[in-house]
């Protein structure tokens, strides 16, 4: 045991415990030996994070009457902080007759790394008042503690201090600044700091790319990576993990394959987070086969790895595969809260209603502490899918969480599918209380009324929208062709091939109407005639993207489209008929799930 090893190295000090303090003082050679023994023992405890052994070493010092000098006392602070014993570390610091910048920084860093930002900031102020000047490591540690409601204000104060003390352009401080600015959603300031750095290392480059990714600016993150890589940026596992997260958001399969190839060529050592990101990226790009290949080839897997592959299968509605994987997982690792969410979500997307409800009932009895509002949301979706709307409403009223907009929205969508006006009105009222400016609630309620032929109520909802000045989030769809991201907005006017797309979509419209397609005019809330409604529906972004894909890709290739919102009923029907008439497979990833459409049928079973 390490403790025994440490104590053996302290044999001389142990013997000295039996002597008087004056006798010890009279032995300078023995004192020097004690210092080196104590220093070696504390260092080993730091390296191995052995708190128990570290406390025993410290106890030997006290028992031997040995008062550690500044250096060794600082090492004790570091040891306790590294082991998470912050109270012990602070006691040592407060008992030091003399402290230097390393002592203060060790304690501040301990607070920061153990998510105690208030204490870190308070100690930093105390340090300044004590007349000790911070160094670059102090400022970098303090910056990571600038969180909460006062976070941005604290960041700017520390930033100003760094400018005054000429630390702003130091590598450690600069990287910490741009990282914390990015995490506080101030990406412009993060970019400004990055641009000012006289030298950039892999940490600072990774931090700025991560900043864009965390804000959902995936295209910007990809473009920045390409620029920096062409300038000679060195990449490590964290850089690639960050980049893959951006490619997951874009669903950029071609770039994802290139990055995977680059990772293999660099022969990087195994890094589990990187493999997990590859699993997630491939599944979000619609390539579950590749995800499974990465998963199966991992020499070791964590619960995160299992969650990533479960989420991938669930996102595609492959509930049976989710069930089989879940059974295999329990033989290898212990499921966590995310696992249970992935399984319930997979059952929901795959239509395994009874199985999903059975496993939820079991979880409530045996693992209720792992359940949160998202798990209940999946069960609400399961009940809605099966048409048990009143039971879903009862569960919402009885569950131990306050229902969210997503919960009510899921039930409202089920009311549209099952044409349940009564429950739909109750649910929409709740939604409008929570989010009166959300256009989606008005649209679905209007669809419910239209399906029931309640046109007066349809017009009432439209007037209410005008009165509330509801603004709908703009729909946006995109696809990647020859490494170029083609983005389409509703009624796109600026795409370079706009005229060709307009001509092609009219041709498609004629062909699919001849095959039986009937536009769902209830998806348009504007008070215009039916002909105008059809023209408006044709301008939806996913229809334009599908049309462009049909024009620009060979017949054997899957048309891959991404959408920032939930796909509307009319566009879903449009995609199914295009698939059937033109013999094309269409992969459409919307806000909620994947829709893989082949020969006029969708994997979602027309429920999403």
From TrEMBL:
GO CC annotation terms, alphabetical: mitochondrion
Compartment(s) of residence: Mitochondrion
The protein, known as: DYW domain-containing protein
Organism: Urochloa decumbens
PANTHER family (UniProt xref): (WILD MALAYSIAN BANANA) HYPOTHETICAL PROTEIN, PENTATRICOPEPTIDE REPEAT-CONTAINING PROTEIN
Ranges of the PPR repeats in the UniProt entry: 100-134, 201-235, 302-332
Highest taxon of the lineage: Eukaryota
Keyword Transit peptide: yes
Spans through the membrane: none
Keywords: Mitochondrion, Repeat, Transit peptide
InterPro entries the UniProt entry points to: DYW_dom, E_motif, PPR_At4g14850-like_plant, PPR_rpt, TPR-like_helical_dom_sf
Family: Belongs to the PPR family. PCMP-H subfamily.
Domain named DYW: residues: 516-608
């Amino acid at each position: 045991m390490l403790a025994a090893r440490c104590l053996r190295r302290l044999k001389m000090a142990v013997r000295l415990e039996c002597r008087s303090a004056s006798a010890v003082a009279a032995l300078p050679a023995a004192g020097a030996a004690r210092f080196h023994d104590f220093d070696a023992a504390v260092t080993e405890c730091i390296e191995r994070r052995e708190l128990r052994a570290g406390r025993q070493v410290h106890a030997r010092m006290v028992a031997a009457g040995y008062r550690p000098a500044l250096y060794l006392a600082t090492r004790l602070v570091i040891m306790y902080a590294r082991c998470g014993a912050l109270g012990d570390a602070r006691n040592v610091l407060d008992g030091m007759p003399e402290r230097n910048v390393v002592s203060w920084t060790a304690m501040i860093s301990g607070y920061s790394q153990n998510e105690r930002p208030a204490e870190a900031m308070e100690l930093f102020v105390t340090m300044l008042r004590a007349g000790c000047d911070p160094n670059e490591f102090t400022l970098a540690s303090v910056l990571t503690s600038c969180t909460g409601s006062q976070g941005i204000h604290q960041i700017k104060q520390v930033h100003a201090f760094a400018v005054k003390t000429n630390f702003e352009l130091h590598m450690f401080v600069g990287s910490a600044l741009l990282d914390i600015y990015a995490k506080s959603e101030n990406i412009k300031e993060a970019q400004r700091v990055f641009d000012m750095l006289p030298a950039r290392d892999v940490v600072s480059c990774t931090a700025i790319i991560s900043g864009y990714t965390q804000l959902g600016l995936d295209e910007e993150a990809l473009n920045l990576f390409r620029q920096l890589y062409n300038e000679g940026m060195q990449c490590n596992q964290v850089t690639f993990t960050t980049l893959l997260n951006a490619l997951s958001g874009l669903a950029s399969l071609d770039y994802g394959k290139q990055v995977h190839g680059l990772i293999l060529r660099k022969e990087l050592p195994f890094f589990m987070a990187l493999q997990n990101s590859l699993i997630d990226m491939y599944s979000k790009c619609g390539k579950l086969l590749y995800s499974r290949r990465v998963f199966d080839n991992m020499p070791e897997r964590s619960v995160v790895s299992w969650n990533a592959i479960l989420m991938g299968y669930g996102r595609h509605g492959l509930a049976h595969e989710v069930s089989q994987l879940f059974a295999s997982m329990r033989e290898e690792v212990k499921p966590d809260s995310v696992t249970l969410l992935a399984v319930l979500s997979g059952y929901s997307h795959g239509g395994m209603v009874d199985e999903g409800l059975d496993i939820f009932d079991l979880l409530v009895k045996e693992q209720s502490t792992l359940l949160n509002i998202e798990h209940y949301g999946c069960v609400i979706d399961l009940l809605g899918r099966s048409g048990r709307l009143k039971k879903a409403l009862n569960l919402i009223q009885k569950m131990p969480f306050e229902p969210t907009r997503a919960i009510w929205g899921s039930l409202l969508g089920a009311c549209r599918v099952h044409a349940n006006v009564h429950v739909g009105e109750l649910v929409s009222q709740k939604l409008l209380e929570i989010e009166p400016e959300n256009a989606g609630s008005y649209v679905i309620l209007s669809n419910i009324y239209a399906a029931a032929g309640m046109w007066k109520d349809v017009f009432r909802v439209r007037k209410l929208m005008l009165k509330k000045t509801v603004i709908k989030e703009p729909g946006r769809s995109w696809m990647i062709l020859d490494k170029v991201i083609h983005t389409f907005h509703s009624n796109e006017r600026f795409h370079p091939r706009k005229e060709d797309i307009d001509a092609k979509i009219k041709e498609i419209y004629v062909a699919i109407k001849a095959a039986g397609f009937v536009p769902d005019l209830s998806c348009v809330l504007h008070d215009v005639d039916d002909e105008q409604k059809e023209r408006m529906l044709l301008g939806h972004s996913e229809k334009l993207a599908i049309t462009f894909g049909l024009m620009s890709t060979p017949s054997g290739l899957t048309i891959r489209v991404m959408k920032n919102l939930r796909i509307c009923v009319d566009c879903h029907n449009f995609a199914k008929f295009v698939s059937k008439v033109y013999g094309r497979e269409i992969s459409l990833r919307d806000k909620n799930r994947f829709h893989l459409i082949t020969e006029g049928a969708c994997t979602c079973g027309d429920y999403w």
